[in-house]
Design brief:
Keywords: ATP-binding, Cell inner membrane, Cell membrane, Membrane, Nucleotide-binding, Translocase, Transmembrane, Transmembrane helix. Its main location: membrane. One of its GO terms (molecular function) is ATP binding. The protein has 497 residues and is of the alpha/beta class. It folds into 2 domains: 313 residues, Up-down Bundle (ABC transporter transmembrane region fold); 169 residues, Rossmann fold (3-Layer(aba) Sandwich), CATH 3.40.50.300. Helices cover 67% and strands 11% of the residues. The protein is built from 16 helices and 10 strands. Strands 6-7-8-3-9-10 form a 6-stranded mixed beta sheet, with helices on both faces. A hairpin with an 8-residue loop joins strand 1 and strand 2. The longest helix has 51 residues. The structure holds adenosine-5'-triphosphate (ATP). The site of adenosine-5'-triphosphate (ATP) has 11 residues, from helix 10.
């Protein structure tokens, strides 16, 4: 399951690395199993008539250990590459999924899940492959390999090792599945509620915020206890299976030795085999909890990456660097239960031009930017990019939005055809936007007459309608709403206590 999730996320490009990682880990396990078997002739020679005959076997043992070390190192290198392949896929799909969220979803459960997944999955991906995948493969393969090699020595022991390995693998699979299911059911904290409770000043003021926080923490503690209730029996099952396997293996070795079918030296070597089986299967029991969490994390990453790839196939969107011409016809938008915030807007934004949108408070400026950028779906009318209807996904891909509080280097660097700047008050930002003239189509919201004087056209909104359009000089000379607003802003700026 883990392998198929990793394969689905890293795709055909990561196939070579995945095969090399699994192949080298299995090779290292094979070398380790054969080095355990080499101990039998080493011990026989050491306790035999001519101890010096042990040298060639010791040489073989050293060679096997050196080869194991080399194989482990190479496997870790390929494991890292697989892990980084996972990170690449998450870093591509995560932001794309976040971009696709509507404004109303930003505080919702899906946004919280995405945020948590991005925060945890990136650092855990490499760990999941290298620190969990390797020991897991090793632990699962070592016992069957030892069983195979024990066949010419004592078929009864081979049978016990094989049955024991299968029982351990079955127990690990069952407990991991149960733990992953428990984690999905009980592992989520109600993040949006927590955020809401912390960040809304009004809720903090009337104590409903702290109350909601306490309720979330209480529910989270209940979930942790449920999770623990699943984890403890899982460990118990694994260690019980391990003890049974060890007891049966020890009993069969003793019986073979006492009945004279196995020499004392071979029986002593079996102690080493036993030790390796304990080590490998013990690792399995320790791995079961982190494995369950990695399994559920990978399943979520796979769902996210597959959904984003499907979306990309449905709407293959490229982000051309050239500026796009935008035409709005009869654009309408109404918040639920409110009068329209945009009420039939007709507007031309020529490619490469800079347009300033101005208007009084609540006139619809921010809503217009949100509809243009694809964060909100219009209730009526059309948005054309370069003469073609632009759906939400295309608008999001081809638009960069700069808010006053967001670092501009992120935003201005995006090769988007349409750049939207909300509250263009920072003179440096305005100067940078000016330098972009011709390379991006820019729409900015501002209340600074100095900025208005530099743009190609000024659009004045009032109650969701365009009431004036023209250059700043034309509108100023006309003495309409813009002239009125500009005078008020200037007075407000010169206001002094
Ligand atoms: N999330 C919302 N839910 C309901 N109504 C909203 C919401 N956001 C804005 N409105 C309403 O839509 C109208 C347009 O608001 P908008 O924020 O677009 O105006 P604005 O010109 O950007 O205002 P300001 O300059 O004060 O930011 C206003 O009547 C406002 O009250």
């Amino acid at each position: 399951m883990i392998y198929s999730d990793i394969a689905a996320v890293t795709g055909p490009a990561g196939r070579r690395d995945r095969i090399a990682f699994v192949g080298l880990t299995l090779l290292s396990t094979l070398l380790q199993a054969s080095s355990v078997m080499t101990l039998i002739p080493v011990l026989h020679a050491l306790f035999g008539a001519e101890p010096t005959q042990a040298w060639p076997w010791v040489g073989l043992l050293v060679g096997q250990l050196a080869a194991t070390w080399l194989a482990d190192n190479a496997a870790a290198r390929f494991g890292l590459r697989v892990g980084f392949g996972l990170i690449d896929a998450i870093e591509t799909a995560g932001p794309a999924a976040i971009r696709r969220l509507g404004v109303d979803e930003l505080a919702g459960t899906r946004a919280a899940r995405l945020r948590e997944l991005l925060a945890t999955a990136v650092p855990e991906s490499v760990t999941a492959v290298v620190l969990l995948g390797s020991p897991l493969l090793h632990a699962l393969a070592l016992t069957p390999l030892l069983a195979l090699m024990l066949l010419p020595i004592a078929w009864q022991l081979s049978l016990v090792a094989l049955a024991g390995g299968l029982a351990m693998a079955g127990a690990v699979a069952a407990t991991s599945r149960a733990l992953a299911a428990a984690e999905t059911a009980f592992g989520d904290v109600d993040d949006p509620v927590l955020d809401f409770a912390w960040t809304r000043p009004a809720r903090r003021g009337d104590q409903s915020g702290p109350r909601a926080t306490a309720a979330v923490v209480k529910a989270s503690r209940r979930r942790s206890l449920h999770l623990l209730a699943w984890q403890l029996p899982s460990h118990l099952v694994l260690s019980s299976v391990l003890i049974v396997v060890l007891l049966v293996f020890g009993a069969v070795v003793s019986w073979l030795y006492l009945s004279g079918s196995m020499s004392g030296v071979t029986a002593a070597a079996m102690a080493v085999v036993l030790f390796r089986v304990v080590e490998a299967t013990g690792a399995l029991s320790l791995l079961s909890a982190p494995l369950a969490s990695a399994t559920s994390m990978l399943a979520q990453v796979r769902a996210l990456v597959e959904a984003e790839r499907a979306e990309a196939v449905v709407a293959p969107v490229t982000a051309p660097e050239r500026p796009c011409a935008v035409t709005l016809s009869q654009l309408r938008f109404a918040y639920p239960g409110r009068t329209p915030a945009l009420d039939g807007i007709d507007l031309e934004l020529p490619a490469g031009s800079i347009t300033a949108v101005v208007g009084g408070s609540g006139s619809g400026k921010s809503t217009l930017l949100e509809v243009l950028s694809g964060l909100r779906r219009q209730s009526g009318g059309t948005v054309l990019f370069d003469g073609e209807p632009a759906l939400l996904a295309e608008r999001r891909a081809r638009t960069a939005v700069a808010f006053a509080e967001i670092g501009r280097d992120r935003v201005l660097g995006k090769p988007a055809g349409l750049l939207l700047v909300d509250d263009a008050a920072d003179p440096e930002l305005v100067a940078e936007v000016g330098r972009l003239r011709g390379t991006r189509t820019v729409v900015l919201v501002t209340r600074r007459p100095a900025v208005l004087a530099t743009v190609d056209q000024v659009v004045v909104l009032d109650a969701g309608r365009v009431v004036e359009t023209g250059t700043f000089a034309e509108l100023w000379a006309r003495g309409g709403l813009l002239a009125d607003l500009a005078q008020r802003w200037e007075q407000a700026e010169n206001w002094q206590l």
